[in-house]
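Sequence only, no structure available. Ideas?
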Amino acid sequence: MCAKRRVAADGAALAAAIDYSLKRWPAILLCVESGQLPIDNHPIENAIRPICLGRRNWLFVGSERAGQRAAAIQILLATASLNGLEPYAWLRSTLEKLPVWPRSRIDELLPLGGRVIDVDATPKDVVGTRINPR
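Reply:
I predicted one. Tokens follow.
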């Protein structure tokens, strides 16, 4: 790659690409040699895309409380998606159940893929695990 860089004209796109790669060579080798590290961050970019697309729209939610409610809904929908649930289906099901659902069991409606939070767990029980099956 160094030989190719010597013949590439300074300021050319090829020279910039080679310089970029050479500056990050140890990281590139780590990705290639280990095989465990992803070479790109496309999954992360795809995960945050809905948040980034909506960011400009959220400037006009009307008030701080409305913004907090919008953020809470986004968190619930993202949690549903991360737990393998289809967010729209989960939201629709939850809104249908909510009027008659007992307050004491409201945590069962959270989008945790069939798991519920163990509200009786002590902090020591929860270290390393976010969710404990009931």
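The chain has seven helices and no strands.
Hope that gets you unstuck.
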